[in-house]
Amino acid sequence: TIVFSLAALAILASCGGRVRYPNYYTLNLPAPPDPPRAENVHAAVAIREFRAPAYLRQGAIVYKPSPEQIGFYAYHRWAINPCEFVTNSVIERLRASGDFARVKPYDGRPDIEYVLSGRLEKLEEIDYEGGVRVEVAISAQMTNLATGATVWTNAVSEVGDVNKRDVPAVVSEMNRTME
Question: Which of 52, 63, 102, 166 is a good FRET partner for 22, with 20 to 30 A between their CA atoms?
Answer without folding.
Answer: 52
